[in-house]
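thought: user wants a sequence for this fold. calling inverse folding tool.
action: design(structure=
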């Protein structure tokens, strides 16, 4: 009797649970189901998709046609000394998604760029001039605002992009090649795609829904009619879709929109550590069964991870319940958190799982930048240098948590002709280590007929001699 009651209870549970589960995700099983249409979803979402036209004027030094002759260029150079400024107009076309009824629009940063004139065209052909509230190169997202004079605009709601699974149906809506609003369908081909090289936060939704030039900035929507991503790039040898497109997850988009509403500045948590992929060899040396996670290989003394107890050689495997399989995944997960909050970080040390509560902070501005332009009769004249703080390193995209003196700009002078670049870190001058801007100023004030300069560029150490 007990077994019979248990069996009946299990059957009732299956009857109650199975229909709900089947409604969440199911494969078409009948001819009628195969004839179902995406039309209701398109009708509810397409009005919130816009076309974006950006225009900017680029000033260049023009020439009279006679001075374009190679004979005259030998004497006067490309500008001939007689050039008059000319203006060239650059235009870009893209798509966008209205994410609030008061006129907030999300698109790609590369769509609007530094455009001075931005026109937004709604699906009903109404046109509005837009202003940029926030333009974030690191996520390749931009938030625009249009004034609809009090009229409520159709908008898309956000869905949780972490709920997406490979195989889920999605629609991409945009204006490919400028032909007009177009809808394509496909599935989610991959989630958490990191080896793409589009922006600083490598964590993309991959889809085979056709995405082409002009689709950039348009929404990727799920079967609930909610925004799950912003279409941003395609992998293609011809320039057209071959079924490999990438979208920025909605969770990232939502964070950027919230930052735009809060004043237009994004303050991200700073990790202060350098993370490295786990290779099979590293996994074997650490006693790991699978090569997954991100190993700490270096760190700044003020790093919140190090202060929470992590050490060099520890492997980060989880952040607030989200698994970490690469450094890019770790960077993304921390970027979704708020400065001032805390995160539970799980990591491996000596094969044992440990946990730490990490208080998230903004990158500190220590030491102060002390921006200085070098002058005088030296090969460094024209360099604009600053003390390298975590805040400046984060701003400039310097990957390693390092200190020293960095070149932030180049003015007119010998340095620009000798091959120095913004981003170069000055390590030594005439055998003396350069730890601060003051060290550099003192070194060039000493005066010498010969100069030995060592810099670090993109992880490479370069030494050069000038004069003497």
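)
observation: tool returned 468 residues.
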């Amino acid at each position: 009797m007990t077994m019979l009651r248990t069996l009946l209870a299990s059957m009732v549970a299956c009857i109650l649970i199975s229909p709900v589960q089947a409604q969440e995700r199911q494969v078409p099983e009948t001819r009628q189901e195969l004839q179902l249409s995406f039309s209701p979803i398109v009708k509810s979402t397409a009005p919130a998709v816009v076309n974006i036209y950006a225009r900017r004027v680029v000033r260049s030094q023009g020439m009279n046609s006679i001075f374009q002759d190679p004979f005259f260029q030998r004497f006067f150079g490309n500008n001939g000394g007689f050039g008059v400024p000319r203006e060239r107009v650059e235009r870009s076309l893209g798509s966008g998604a209205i994410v609030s009824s008061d006129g907030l629009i999300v698109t790609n940063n590369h769509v609007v760029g530094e455009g001075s004139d931005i026109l937004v065209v709604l699906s009903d052909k109404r046109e509005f001039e837009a202003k940029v509230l926030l333009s974030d190169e690191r996520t390749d997202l931009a938030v625009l605002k249009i004034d609809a004079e009090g009229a409520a605009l159709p908008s898309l709601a956000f869905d949780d992009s972490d709920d997406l699974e490979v195989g889920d149906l999605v629609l991409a809506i945009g204006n490919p090649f400028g032909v007009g609003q177009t809808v394509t369908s496909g599935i989610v081909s991959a989630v958490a795609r990191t080896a793409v090289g589009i922006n600083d936060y490598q964590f993309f939704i991959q889809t085979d829904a056709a995405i082409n030039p002009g689709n950039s900035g348009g929404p990727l929507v799920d079967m609930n009619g909610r925004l799950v991503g912003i279409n941003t790039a395609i992998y293609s040898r011809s320039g057209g879709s071959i079924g490999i497109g990438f979208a920025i997850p909605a969770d990232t988009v939502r964070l950027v929109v919230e930052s735009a509403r809060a004043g237009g500045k994004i303050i991200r948590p700073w990790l202060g550590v350098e993370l490295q992929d786990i290779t099979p060899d590293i996994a074997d040396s650490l006693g790991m069964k699978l090569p997954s996670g991100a190993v700490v290989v270096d760190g700044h003394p003020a790093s919140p991870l190090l202060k929470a107890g992590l050490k060099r050689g520890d492997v980060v495997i989880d952040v607030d319940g989200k698994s970490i399989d690469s450094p890019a995944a770790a960077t993304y997960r921390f970027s979704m958190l708020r400065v001032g909050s805390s995160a539970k970080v799980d990591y491996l040390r000596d094969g044992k799982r440990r946990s730490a509560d990490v208080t998230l902070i903004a990158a500190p501005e220590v030491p102060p930048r002390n921006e200085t332009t070098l002058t005088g009769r030296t090969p460094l004249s024209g360099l604009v240098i600053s003390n390298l703080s975590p805040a400046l390193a984060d701003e400039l995209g310097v990957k390693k948590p390092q200190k020293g003196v960095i070149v932030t700009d180049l003015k007119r002078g010998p340095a620009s002709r000798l091959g120095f670049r913004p981003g170069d870190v000055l390590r030594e001058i005439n055998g003396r280590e350069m730890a601060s801007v003051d060290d550099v100023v003192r070194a060039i004030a000493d005066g010498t007929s010969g100069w030995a300069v060592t810099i670090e560029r993109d992880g490479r150490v370069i030494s050069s001699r000038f004069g003497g």
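thought: summarizing for user.
answer: Here is the designed sequence. The CA atoms of residues 454 and 463 lie 4 Å apart.
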